[in-house]
Structure formats: structure tokens, C-alpha cells
Amino acid sequence: MAYTISHSRRLRSTPFTRGVEAAGVTSYTVYNRMLLPTVFESVEFDYRHLKQHVQVWDVSVERQIELNGPDASRLMQLLTPRDLSKMQSDQCFYVPITDEDGKMLNDPVAIKHDDTRWWVSIADSDLLLWIKGLAVGKGLDVRVSEPDVSPLAVQGPKADDLMERVFGDLVRDIRFFRYKRLAFGDTSFIVARSGYSKQGGFEIYVEGSEHGMPLWDALFAAGKDLNVRPGCPNLIERIEGGLLSYGNDMTMDNSPLECGLGKFCKPAEGNDHIGHAAMTRELAEGSARQIRAISIPGAPLVPARAAWPLMRDGVRVGQVTSAAWSPDFDTNVAIGMVDAGHWEDGTELTVHTPEGERNAQVREKFWI
Ligand code: THG
Known about the structure:
Elements: H1 17-22, E1 27-31, E2 34-39, H2 43-52, E3 55-58, E4 64-68, H3 72-79, E5 92-94, E6 97-98, E7 104-106, E8 109-114, E9 117-121, H4 127-137, E10 143-145, E11 149-155, H5 159-167, E12 179-184, E13 187-192, E14 201-207, H6 212-222, E15 229-231, H7 235-240, H8 276-285, E16 289-296, E17 308-312, E18 315-326, E19 331-339, E20 348-353, E21 356-363
Parallel strand pairs: 3-15
Antiparallel strand pairs: 1-2, 3-11, 4-9, 4-10, 5-8, 6-7, 8-9, 11-14, 12-13, 13-14, 16-19, 16-21, 17-18, 17-20, 18-19, 20-21
The site of (6S)-5,6,7,8-tetrahydrofolate (THG) has 16 residues, from loops.
């Protein structure tokens, strides 16, 4: 099977597409109706390089939704169960977003500029439409739009060294999930210590597409001796680290509590989050299922294109939603949703993979 992609205006390119293609991207996935690189050399080569050196990732598919106006903070708190009341104007928060039934619509990073202006850095669902609908329906004084902002991630153990060369030594002072606005040429960008890997690093919110390639080129020129390479969110590393993928590991059928996101759902007094009643009910009654790390020993498995049933004594008790062979842990690492009563650490299950039945073990913790 070999396909090509038919390009058109709908499949928007990014400010970095020219650099990504020149650097030899070999696979893409579709995310927010754009292309997200998934492989450069090979998933395993990219994984080892990410853990040793530093990579530059085009994550423009993490689109920004801007809330701008007097009611911006009110709208933001309607969207999420996470308490935003003490959030400062230099912070980013990972925020579950739910509907009125307390089910996941997206799991973005929220960036607070000030009480009247926010960015919501979205995962793969059409959150703009839900936010616009809520703003209009509730009669709020706020504009909701998609600005020309594209995140570029710099990830890996040498990320501080590379970023210091391009943005100066202030980058080292940025704390986890905080940001600073730093100069680049005749402009400046928000630079946050965050990113979709456990290897450490930064995300640069590139405002103005025309600045994309100059920044890309500056990072590669500055990082030659650091062995900088193009990269992308890595399937193996993100499963080892328990970083969830909306649309894969969770969907609109799941609540944040089922997804293990309870620590991001501590509502403030008088929280008017739209899913508050449903979530309070689930907290009292307990969740029907929960996300768990799952190890699947044996030969390397193909990536999961569909959910793989998890069985116990011939009865279905869950499903595996992401899986990959881990060279570092010498097993297939996986993420799955497991029914109540079966999610204790060490529980032995059977998983039905496209390559046959395998033993699987529920784990309390992810690998990294
Ligand atoms: N960065 C930005 N936008 C994004 C992502 C990102 N939008 C889409 C997608 N990724 C959203 N999903 C996640 C999932 C996990 C994390 C961030 C975004 C994450 N989690 C940390 C963890 O679980 O260890 C820590 C979260 C915390 O402690 O606050 O980083 O990657 N801009």
C-alpha cells in the first residue's frame, strides 16, 4: 500500500512546512485538518535521538484559539473544571475541557496573557465551534478567533543549550509551564517551558507566519554541534511518559476522571464550569473505567489502528488504545482504558491484537 496526499487549500500548510519537507519528513498524520509529522528517520531512531540530543518540532497543528474581551476569563472558567482563579499572567495550564455531561471535548494548554486575553492551544477536535457557541449562547462580551500563531517545540536534554544561543540566557530562568516574552530579530515571541515529551524543553508561540522559517533556520544554524535534528511527538516516548492523545486514548465518551486527569479538576468555590454537576456526581459515585499503563511482553507489535479488546476470563474489561515497542524497557508499552474492578497494579489480562492474543499486565505507573 502506498498513498499520496492530494493537497489543497483545506489542508493548510504551516510556517515551517518548507523546512520540515527539506529535512526529510517520511510520515505524517492528520491533526486539526492539517499535517503533523510523525517520522523523520524512523520512530526508533527519532526516539533515541530525542532522549540524547535536541529536536525542533513543527507542532503548528496545536492551533491557538484566542479569547479576547472583558468576559474572556469568565468564558475560560466555563470551559474547564480546573480552578483558574489563582492563575498568573505568565502561566500555562493543562486544562481538560468538557461538555455539559462532563465528557472530554479536548485537552489543551491554556496560556493566560491577562484577565481579558487567553490562548487555548488545542488538541485534535473542533473546539473553536464549541467556544464560539458558548460565548454567543451565554451572551458574553468576548471575541473568539484563531490568530496567526504556530507553536514550534524544542525538546530534548540539550534544549536549554540550544535555546540560550537563540534567545539568550533568560530562557534558563523560565519555570515549568511558565513563559517569558523574548526577542527574536525585530519581533518577540512567547517562550514557555512545556512540550509533548518528558525530555524537557520549550514551546515557542510564533506570531506571524513570516517569522517561521527565519526562526527554524536560526535554531538549526545555532545547534549544529549539539546534533540538533527535526523531530515530532514520538509515539514510543509519549506512551512511556503517559502523555495522552485526544481521539486515541480518550474521546467524547470519556470523563477527565476516567482519563486520570482528576488532579486538573479541583473546582473552586462557586465554579461555574459547564460540566460541574456531572463531574460532582461522578466524584461521588466513582468512575466506571480508568486509563492505565499496560505492558504487553513479547515481540514488537504494530501501532494500534483500532482499539484492541482487553479480556479477563473471556469477558471484555477494557481496551488498549495506543501501543509501541520500547527499546529502553524491552517490552511493548501501551495505554488502555480498564473497567472498575480490573485496574489494580499487576492485574493479568489478555489483549486481542491484530497479531493474535497476548498477555498484558496493568501497571500503576507509566514508565517515565
Ligand atoms: N503543547 C501545546 N499545545 C498542545 C499540546 C502541547 N495542544 C495539544 C496537546 N499537546 C494537548 N495535550 C497535552 C497533553 C499533555 C501535556 C500537554 C498537552 C503535558 N502534560 C504534562 C504531563 O502530563 O506530564 C504536565 C502537565 C502539567 O503538569 O500541567 O505537558 O504539548 N502548547
